[in-house]
Structure formats: C-alpha cells, structure tokens
Write a structure and sequence with these properties.
Elements (H helix, E strand, L loop, with lengths): L15 H11 L4 H8 L11 H12 L4 H10 L5 H10 L3 H7 L60 E3 L1 H7 L14 E5 L2 E8 L2 E8 L7 H17 L8 E5 L6 E5 L6 H5 L10 H20 L12 E3 L5 E3 L4 H6 L5 H10 L5 H4 L5 H17 L13 H9 L5 H4 L9 H14 L10 H17 L1
Parallel strand pairs: 1-5
Antiparallel strand pairs: 2-3, 3-4, 4-6, 5-6, 7-8
The structure holds adenosine-5'-triphosphate (ATP) and magnesium ion.
Amino acid sequence: MSQEISSTTFVRSLQHVTLRQLSDFLDPQDSWKKVLAAIHKPTGEPRYTQLHLRRFERLVSMGKSPTIELLYDWGTTNCTVGELVDIFLRHELLAAASVLLPDKFQMDAGVQRHVPVQETVSPSSQATRLFDQKEQASDCPLPDSTTKPWEEEEPDDTGFYRFSYDRLAKITSNFDERPASEGGRRLGEGGFGVVYKGCFNGKQVAVKKLNCVDDISPQELKIQFNQEIQALKMLKHVNLVEMVGFSSDRDHPCLVYELMANGSLLDRLACLGGSPTLSWSRRCAITVGTARGLQYLHVNHHVHRDIKSGNILLDEALGPKISDFGLTRGSARRGSSTVLTEKIVGTTAYMAPEAMRGEISPKSDVFSFGVVLLEVLSGLPPVDDSREPQFLLEMKAEIEDEDLTLEDFVDKKMEDGEPLAVEKMFSLARLCLNDRKGRRPDIAQVLRQLEDVLTTSAEH
Ligand SMILES: Nc1ncnc2c1ncn2[C@@H]1O[C@H](COP(=O)(O)OP(=O)(O)OP(=O)(O)O)[C@@H](O)[C@H]1O
Ligand SMILES: [Mg+2]
C-alpha cells in the first residue's frame, strides 16, 4: 500500500521503498553530500562534520546506500519531509523533491513549479548561478578511489584540513593570477591578500593567500592567524562562510573556505559580469539571512568589525554567508600601522562614528549593517568618488531632509519592490545608522524587523 506523504510527515516514517527511490536519485554523483552539508542543528551549526561525511562515504564500499543511512540518522531528530524538500530545492534536486511531493513539483517539460513547503530564509525555487565562473562540476572531480593521491590528508577532530602550501599551489594551478571568469583562478583581492579558486576532494574551494605586511613579522602573523583559526573552529552557522582548512608551513599562511558560487553581494548588486538584477524578495531574504549570521556572532560574543556587502557572500542558491569574521579581529589588533590606516580608509563608508575612534561593540556592526541595507535598497555602491554625495550614508540625510525621495533612491532595476516593505526597510536602516549607539537596535530587533519586511513583501 502506498504511503500518503505530506510536508509534515516525519522523515523517520518514510517507507523503505520511498527511501530507495530517493537513493536512486541521490547516491549517483554523490548528491547526498549536498543534502548532508545542508543539514543543521537548531543552533545553526552543521549537524555533520567531515568525519561524519567520511563515515557515510565508507558505507558505499560496504554496498550500503549513504542516502538511506543519512536519512535514518537525521530522521531521529523528528525532521519533516518539508525540511527535506526545502533542502532538495535549494540544491535543485527536483527529481528527489518530486518523489516525496509529486503533486507540488512537476518534473516534465523542464517546468519547475515551486510551492513553498515551509517558511524558509532564502527562496530556493530560483537556485541559480548568476555568476559564470567558467567551470563545470566535471572540472572538479572527486578523488579517484583507486589512486587516492592525497590519502594522507585527514581533517583534524574539528573537521579542518591542515594543508601544505604546495598542496594549495597545486589545487589553484600555482595560484594562477588570471581571473576565474577567464579560465584562471583569481577571484579577487582584499586587504589581506588574494583569493583563488581551487578544487579539493571534488568540491570547489576559495583559497585566501595572506600577505605579510611591513609592520608585522611573519612570526607575529602566524600567531594571529592561529588565534583566528581557533575562533573560526568555534563559530559555525548556516549564514557564516565555512572554513575547510588552512596551511601555515610557509611565509604566506593560507585559509581555505567553501567557494561561494555567486560571489559577493557587492558585486551582485552592481550586476558585475552581467549578472541579473537581484529581485526585491531575494534582497529581503539575503538581509534576513545575514542578520541571522550576525546575531549568531553577537550571541557568541564576537564582533565582526568589517560588515560590508563585500563580506556577504552568496552561495549557489543565493543564500547569504558572512565572511572574514575571524580575520577582521586580527586586523584590528595591528594598531596604527599603514595597513590598518589603509583598511580604515577602505571601510570608512561603513564605520560607526565611535568605531572611527576605535570603540568597537556589537552596535558598531549594526551601524555597518545599516549601510548594507541602504545598498540593498538602492543598488548603489557604498562609496563612489564621482558621486555627490560620495558616501551612500549621506543620502540617508538627504532623504530625511526631503532633498531626495525614497522612490528616487530605490533601485529602479528591481521590478517587485513593494512600497510598504521598502519604507519599512528604510526606517530600519535609519535606526541602525543612528550616530548614538545606545539608540540603535540590537541585532535581534533588527532581525525581527527584517522578518516583518519579508512578510510584508510576501503578502503583496
Ligand atoms: N569563499 C569565497 N568564495 C567566493 N569568492 C570569494 C570567497 N572569499 C572571497 N571571495 C572573493 O574574493 C574577493 C576578495 O575577498 P577578500 O575577503 O580578500 O577581500 P574583501 O572582502 O574585498 O576585503 P577585506 O579584506 O576587507 O575582507 C572578493 O571579491 C570576494 O568576492
Ligand atoms: Mg572579505
């Protein structure tokens, strides 16, 4: 007798025949790994580490299905079909979604009809890579099980890989300086060094090669770097970029992160490389996810210090993840070095008045996030030398003084900007950007208000 399945059905009550059908779609090409990586504990931490992943991988050689074992295991938490289908949609695993809820997902004629299964932060129906990095999955093959060239590499007990510099050189084609969009490896450059695209264990990664700067010795850089790794090990959340590992055997320490296929929010708002405009509903979901990541940092007594759209990265499903939450602490400790001066100049557009004086608190992150909200509303860069006013922040005052209307400020490229929701987001940005930190909301209040903006948008 076939089973009636709805989004509230517990995964643990699915019949074996259904699990078998799912495994037919998810075991090949290791699609189950995407599902595993997307499963989180209620605290936001990933449920499974690299060690778990290995354990599931081993099941294949024992003739078992990793998909079925994974669903048995996760099923013990009383997770539902709705949650599982949401994960499928986020990763475009539509065939698997249609096994569970065939009425809601049509697989024929390429039609992808998405009926929201449950409230979710990032609308997953349009999971897409906006930013063509000229690499196919086949260019990043899984290691061959017969040769196992890097068999000695095992993650440590927290799931991080300790790489050698040479190994990272190898996976980035010798730190190929040609842009990734032109077939090279360079993704971009920031205040700490250059970021390259690499490939490790069948997964695309971003390798940040840190530069030694004049005012800091290689030894000191390594101490700071190690301290930051300790911090990164503790901080895990679905809206924070995950670290895969690091290398520290040469003068250029490197950090290896999961690759965020859609680059930074800064670049996507600017439609760099011809990427399509982010819709209003997508922008709302991005702000909610970012606020969740920031709330997690603040709850864990961590101030980011460099919140900006360039540090909000977007995954394949355009889900936001905050990056550089470890390094920025290190940078602030560099004192009044030239690099710090440059860094302050580079991020002035986001800095709270008290942060300019060196006073850092969670409320200074809230201020910076207010600038990000202005970027999301307007699609404009935070600073533009050829613009009057140069700083986006100053446009807030122009709107308050009625020299500029909110309607004129809002990004004309969006077609679904709902006026009430837009107004609510702008009011929230104003609160975040209050010069007096005591008058700014805390991140929990910001998050609640953004969820309200999201609901307002969805209702219209
Ligand atoms: N994990 C990642 N996946 C994809 N792209 C990334 C990743 N990390 C960084 N990048 C890209 O690399 C570029 C440089 O990033 P980096 O963090 O070094 O500098 P930044 O964010 O511009 O400045 P800062 O040094 O102040 O953080 C950015 O354009 C960013 O989009
Ligand atoms: Mg960055």
